[in-house]
Design a protein that fits this description.
Layout: H1 2-18, H2 23-30, H3 32-38, H4 47-58, H5 61-72, H6 82-95, H7 103-113, H8 116-119
């Protein structure tokens, strides 16, 4: 039974290692082996339950709220290029993987945060 649990954990860890992540998420993922081994055997039976437990542990509501607020308050800074603004916005989205915004809202927030000098080009 323990060996089966370890094999399942190994498969999950390999999947986590293959995912492209940002730094805050990477820091949390580094702690996954210890956290995963602390879970009771068979307590994670779907990816949804794994994601829920992981996000609850490493992205508590207060952190999620802070990161989501930073994202929805996005503004283009110092007349940076459209490309630079988009890259910075995507980083904000990556920092909060559970932001819960639909695609149309993501684009609305991004466009709304662009400076007028960029909006005239778009």
């Amino acid at each position: 039974m323990q060996k089966k649990h370890e094999e399942a954990n190994k498969e999950i860890l390999e999947t986590f290692r293959k995912v492209e992540v940002n730094i805050p998420l990477l820091d949390a993922i580094k702690q996954v082996p210890r956290w995963l081994n602390s879970l009771p055997p068979s307590s994670v039976d779907t990816w949804d339950s794994l994601a829920y437990k992981f996000l609850t542990k490493y992205f508590p509501p207060s952190k999620t709220t802070k990161l989501r607020t930073e994202t929805v308050n996005f503004t283009q800074v110092n007349r940076k290029s459209l490309y630079d603004a988009w890259e910075r916005f995507k980083e904000l989205l990556r920092r909060c993987p559970q932001h819960g915004m639909q695609d149309w809202l993501v684009m609305q927030v991004f466009y709304g945060g662009l400076g007028s000098h960029t909006k005239t080009v778009c």
